[in-house]
Amino acid sequence: MKVLLIRHGKSEKSGGGQIDIPLSEKGVLQAQKVSQYLAKHHPIDRIYSSPLTRALHTAQAIGETTGTPIQVDVQMMERTSGIFDGYTNEEREERYPSEWLYFSNHRAEAAPNGESLFHLDERVSQVMDRVVDASSNDTIAIVSHGEWINLFLHKVLEVPLYHYPMFKVKPASVSLLSFKKTGQKVVHYLNRV
């Protein structure tokens, strides 16, 4: 099985978490570019997407260009940072100085009203168990968010969570992995397009 991990295009504002922030004009163009790249290089059997608009809009562009149906999955949503969702790091520091100081130095923990890295890791594991089938010859696309994709890569490569974040996942990028019947996992490339 081949798995294409696609981060959504650039959103109108960084730091969205689970706040539904749409793609920026640049993000819309990035979504079109990534959809054309995928149509040219990778036939896709299924697309899975986070329901957040920035990811879903990217998935819809891919689906329209490739003619592939989309399945929305709430387990693919970005990690919520609770009270910090929807704010840039500068805004977080200004609005919640003591809470942000603590959370920015303890990223694995849950922010107030937020989700821990360990909970997000469990969501990623559930999706992997459900959609990745090494005995299949299908190619699936997963359109999600930076932290979510980063943890997917951690799990595939068996990188311990204490090394998080190990990868820089760029907006509107494609990473290709394959899962072999033998149990071998291959990362063919990261951050293409």
Q: Please, could you describe this protein's structure?
A:
With 193 residues, the chain is an alpha/beta fold. 38% of the residues lie in helices and 17% in strands. The protein contains 6 helices and 6 strands, in the order βαβαβαααβαββ. A 6-stranded mixed β-sheet has the order 3-2-4-1-5-6, sandwiched between helices. Strand 2, helix 2 (53-66) and strand 3 form a beta-alpha-beta unit. Helix 3 packs across helix 4. The chain is globular. The two termini are 21 Å apart. The mean pLDDT is 95.
Order of helices and strands: EHEHEHHHEHEE
Task: List how many beta strands DSSP finds.
Answer: 6
Largest sheet at a glance? Answer: 6 strands, mixed
| Rg (C-alpha, Å) | 16 Å
- Order of strands, main sheet, comes to 3-2-4-1-5-6
Percent range of helical residues: 25-40%
**Mass-distribution shape:** globular
The fraction of residues assigned to DSSP E strands is 15-25%
List keywords for this structure.
193 residues; 6 strands
Short description:
The protein is of the alpha/beta class.
Topology:
Layout: E1 2-7, H1 25-41, E2 46-49, H2 53-66, E3 70-72, H3 89-95, H4 97-104, H5 117-131, E4 139-144, H6 146-157, E5 174-179, E6 185-192
Parallel strand pairs: 1-4, 2-3, 2-4
Antiparallel strand pairs: 1-5, 5-6
Helix pairs in contact: 1-2, 3-4, 5-6
